[in-house]
């Protein structure tokens, strides 16, 4: 009888064959060796299967959906097929640094049982250049901080498999913000810890910059509805989330929705700068959109 691997790594993929090989290679090159790698192909129409088959490694498994079901469904297929004590996720266009699994598995061995998640820092890379480093800042009970926004880079996360039995898997009905929703449910039940070092590389490329912002806006709104009672407990946080939806709506050119959410934000917290957004989007719309989009993509300090 073959022992189950300690870690299951899941790479969901869809029509990104040119990038997928880099992600797979970064997992197979881990200094920690006791893992299985599950690539879940969400019904790609390119040469994804050929790329996967080019790697000769017994730890690598390939699953293909007969129809395109979305990223959350691909992740869930990987979870249901996994056998490791811990589960890590890597997007098909990102990359792990060699010691990523090693330091996280070692840390889990030193943590109390109520810790279910370990994450870390990551580079943001675009056109071959590192444009920003993101380091972790929150540990322990992070639910309050998670209500403020998704602060965890999914390429860095490692989760106890049992957590999904207790918190559920990824919500396949959400069009966006699936990570944020999943981390919120985990944060309600488990403590989080972090490695203070860079563990992964998150790549920004054209397909991401042109992501469907309307789906993301709908995702944020769905998360606010799903956790309405919790957000309502913290009016300042809810106000900021309304303002965030307002900015997103302005970026996609929906001034009416954007202004409606800015007004909702100001009703909860009158002494703030939402009114400046309203003024700017009508007086200097092109400049406003460029600056807002830059912040949304790169963060506040690009």
Structure write-up:
There is one protein chain. The chain has 302 residues and is α/β, with parallel strands linked by helices. The protein folds into 2 domains: 7-209, Spore Coat Polysaccharide Biosynthesis Protein SpsA, Chain A (Alpha-Beta Complex); 234-298, no CATH class. The protein has helices at residues 17-28, 48-53, 71-81, 100-108, 143-148, 161-167, 178-189, 206-209, 213-226, 228-232, 235-251, 255-268, 274-283, 285-298; strands at 7-13, 35-41, 60-64, 86-89, 95-96, 115-126, 129-134, 158-160, 191-204. Strands 1, 2, 3, 4, 5, 6, 7, 8 and 9 form a 9-stranded mixed sheet that branches. A hairpin with a 2-residue loop joins strand 6 (115-126) and strand 7 (129-134). Helix 6 (161-167) packs across helix 7, helix 9 (213-226) packs antiparallel against helix 11 (235-251) and helix 11 runs antiparallel to helix 12. It is globular and about 65 Å long. It starts with 6 loop residues before the first strand and ends with a helix.
CATH evolutionary superfamily of the largest domain: Spore Coat Polysaccharide Biosynthesis Protein SpsA, Chain A
Distance between the termini: 51 Å
**CATH top level class name of the largest domain:** Alpha Beta
CATH architecture title of the largest domain: Alpha-Beta Complex
Tally of discrete structural domains: 2
Comma- or semicolon-separated keywords:
alpha/beta; Spore Coat Polysaccharide Biosynthesis Protein SpsA, Chain A; globular; 302 residues
Would you spell out the secondary-structure blueprint of this structure?
Blueprint: E1 7-13, H1 17-28, E2 35-41, H2 48-53, E3 60-64, H3 71-81, E4 86-89, E5 95-96, H4 100-108, E6 115-126, E7 129-134, H5 143-148, E8 158-160, H6 161-167, H7 178-189, E9 191-204, H8 206-209, H9 213-226, H10 228-232, H11 235-251, H12 255-268, H13 274-283, H14 285-298
Parallel strand pairs: 1-2, 1-4, 2-3, 6-9
Antiparallel strand pairs: 4-8, 5-9, 6-7, 6-8
Helix pairs in contact: 6-7, 9-11, 11-12, 11-14, 12-13, 13-14
């Amino acid at each position: 009888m073959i022992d189950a691997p300690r870690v299951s790594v899941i790479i969901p993929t869809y029509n990104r064959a040119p990038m997928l090989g880099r992600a797979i290679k970064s997992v197979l090159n881990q200094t920690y060796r006791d893992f299985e790698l599950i690539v879940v192909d969400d019904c790609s129409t390119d040469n994804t299967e050929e790329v996967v088959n080019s790697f000769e490694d017994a730890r690598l498994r390939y699953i293909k959906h007969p129809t395109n079901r979305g990223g959350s469904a691909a992740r869930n297929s990987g979870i249901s097929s996994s056998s490791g004590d811990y589960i890590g996720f890597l997007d098909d266009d990102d990359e792990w640094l060699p010691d990523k699994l090693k330091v996280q598995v070692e840390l889990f061995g030193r943590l109390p049982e109520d810790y279910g998640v370990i994450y870390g820092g990551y580079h943001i890379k675009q056109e071959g250049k590192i444009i920003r480093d993101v380091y972790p800042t929150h540990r322990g009970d992070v639910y309050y901080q998670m209500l403020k926004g998704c602060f965890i880079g999914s390429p860095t996360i490692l989760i106890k498999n049992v957590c999904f039995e207790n918190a559920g898997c990824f919500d396949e009905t959400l069009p966006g913000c699936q990570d944020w929703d999943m981390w919120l449910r985990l944060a309600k039940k488990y403590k989080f810890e972090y490695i203070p070092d860079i563990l992964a590389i998150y790549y920004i490329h054209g397909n991401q910059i042109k992501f469907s912002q309307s789906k993301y806006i709908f995702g944020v709104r769905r998360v606010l509805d799903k956790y309405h009672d919790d957000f309502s407990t913290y009016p300042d946080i809810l106000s900021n989330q309304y303002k965030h939806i307002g900015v997103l709506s302005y970026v996609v050119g929906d001034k009416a929705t954007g202004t409606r959410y800015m007004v909702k934000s100001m009703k909860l917290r009158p002494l703030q700068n939402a009114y400046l957004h309203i003024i700017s989007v009508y007086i200097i719309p092109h400049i406003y959109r460029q600056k807002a989009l830059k912040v949304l993509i790169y963060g506040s300090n690009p």
